[in-house]
Design brief:
The protein is 34% helix and 23% strand. It has two domains: 11-150, Beta Barrel (OB fold (Dihydrolipoamide Acetyltransferase, E2P)), CATH 2.40.50; 172-321 and 383-492, BirA Bifunctional Protein, domain 2 (2-Layer Sandwich), CATH 3.30.930. The chain has 503 residues and is of the alpha+beta class. The chain has 16 helices and 18 strands. The relative contact order is 0.09.
């Protein structure tokens, strides 16, 4: 039988494996180590000792520090001294190794180390003649042998696809990439802190669901063996979170993974992270104010300012976000007035005149209004803008506007052509909700593979009574892109899905 996993190593990889074998023969196998006691992280070390002068550190030779990290630079200073740099999660520091302090055998042991090896050292602090904080090594131990060489420090990872496939290498050699993910965690923690401080409870809802709902999207389908039934990966957390409001919670939210079986681009990933929040007795205006607060505070948490630059545009998130009705936006941008009553045929004729393509499942004026927004308005939005008043046909879970029942109390947040949030005054009339699900089933039959399913259990939940409720969903990945100035969604996902090699 052929071995499909047979591997061929480069010359450098073979040399490193030979070095490992020599170490093992000498009883110095680095892979048997299971701990190393560090006295400081490198950040802590720098914060503690960098303010001292060279002369002051020369008087602190009794302070032994113990640190660990990966070798990133390695240069010999003559035959009997070596300078190197090691890095840990947040920092790097120079180390200085001398033969007369380690002894010939240990110095040769250190000299045979490679870039990428992970070492633990003990030593004293010093500063060079140039004032660089340095650890003067007294003992060194190889903790992990790197069997693959790192990419060239200056060239980096030449193939952008490899940057995403081998994120672990990208994190080693690009501190900017690592900072993005540190900032991502700060953004999520800031959101949690704000929502928790307002008394809202973080909950978890099922990822595997028997009915798709809560959004218009094509799901991933799987077979649940134990239940012998088809299930979908959730396309939203909405319907289960609203069941919690029915159950008596005043406010609940969930930060979690969402799955939509759709295309991959710089803006879209089929597996992404959102936060959804539902608050009893609150309306759309409350959600707009809260949304502004979340964006403002998350920007302050990671950037220290509300002023950002993204895609060449300067924005200040401290300014009030524009609030623009969808129909007003369309009228202002392209001159078409959808406030006027019109038939579907009349709307189709206007679409034809404006070269807007109407698909067969777009069978209402409301669908055509949304097409006009996507075609003419969305690309014009730069400043943070709440687009509200979506047609009821594209908002099956939203309450109708009290003044004009053609539209709903729903908004989406757009910044520089991209949607960042979607929010409703939630529909809590079970009779109306049932009828809208029926309309969705008709859309599915007409060819819309993103239509919602009928969720009878959710209808029954509403029949027990859900108070007036406001709900909002925010895309975490896009927010992180905005606040870290990242061009692609793959830049803010630690391990984005990629096509298999060779495909």
């Amino acid at each position: 039988m052929s071995n499909n996993f047979e591997r061929n190593f480069s010359e450098q990889e073979n040399i490193r494996r030979e070095k490992l074998n020599n170490l093992i023969e000498k009883g110095r196998d680095p892979f048997v180590e299971n701990e190393f006691d560090r006295s400081h992280s490198l950040n802590e070390l720098i914060e503690k000792f960098d303010s001292f002068t060279k002369e002051e550190l020369q008087e602190k030779t009794d302070i032994i520090v113990s640190v660990a990290g990966r070798i990133r630079l390695f240069r010999e200073a003559g035959k009997k001294a070596i300078f190197a740099n090691i890095q840990d999660q947040n920092s790097s520091i120079q180390i200085y190794v001398r033969q007369d302090e380690l002894g010939e055998e240990e110095f040769e042991y250190f000299r045979n180390l490679d870039l990428g090896d992970i070492i633990g050292i003990q030593g004293i602090m010093m500063k060079t003649d140039h004032g660089e904080l340095t650890i003067r090594v007294k003992n060194a131990k190889l903790l992990t042998k790197a069997l693959k060489p790192l990419p060239d420090k200056h060239l980096g990872i030449a193939d952008i696809e490899e940057k995403y496939r081998r994120r672990y290498v990208d994190l080693i050699i690009n501190p900017e990439s690592k900072q993005v993910f540190i900032d991502r965690t700060k953004i999520i923690r800031t959101m949690q802190s704000i929502l928790d401080s307002k008394g809202y409870m973080e909950v978890e809802t099922p990822i595997l669901q028997s009915v798709r709902g809560g959004a218009s999207a094509k799901p991933f389908v799987t077979h649940y063996n134990a239940l012998d039934n088809e299930f979908v990966l959730r396309i939203a957390t909405e319907l289960h979170l609203k069941r919690c409001i029915v159950g008596g919670f005043d406010g609940v939210y969930e930060i979690g993974r969402i799955f939509r079986n759709e295309g991959i681009s710089t803006r879209h990933n089929p597996e992404f992270t959102s936060v959804e929040l539902y608050v009893a007795y609150k309306n759309m205006d409350f959600l707009m104010d809260l949304c502004e607060e979340l964006f403002r505070e998350c920007s302050l948490a990671v950037r220290g300012t509300t002023k950002i630059n993204y895609g060449g545009h300067d924005l200040d998130l401290a300014k009030p976000f524009k609030r623009w009705h969808m129909v007003d936006a369309i009228k202002e941008v392209c001159g078409v007035d959808f406030w006027q009553d019109m038939t579907y045929i009349e709307a189709c004729e206007i679409a034809k005149q404006k070269n807007v393509k109407v698909e067969k499942h777009h069978f209402s004026v409301g669908h055509i209004i949304n097409l006009f927004f996507e075609e003419f308005v969305e690309e014009k939005i730069i400043e943070p803008t709440f687009i509200w008043g979506h047609p009821k046909e594209i908002s099956p879970l939203s309450k109708l506007n009290a003044k004009d029942s053609r539209f709903t109390d729903r908004f989406e947040l757009f910044i520089i052509n991209r949607e960042y949030a979607n929010a409703f005054a939630e529909l809590n009339n079970p009779i109306d909700q049932y009828e809208r699900f029926v309309d969705q089933i008709k859309e599915a039959a007409a060819g819309n593979d993103e239509a919602n399913d009928m969720d009878i259990d959710f209808i029954e939940a509403l029949e027990y009574g859900m108070p007036p409720t406001g709900g909002i969903g925010i895309g975490i990945d896009r927010m992180v892109m905005l606040l870290t100035n990242s061009e692609s969604i793959k830049d803010v996902l630690l391990f984005p899905q990629m096509k298999p090699r060779g495909n």
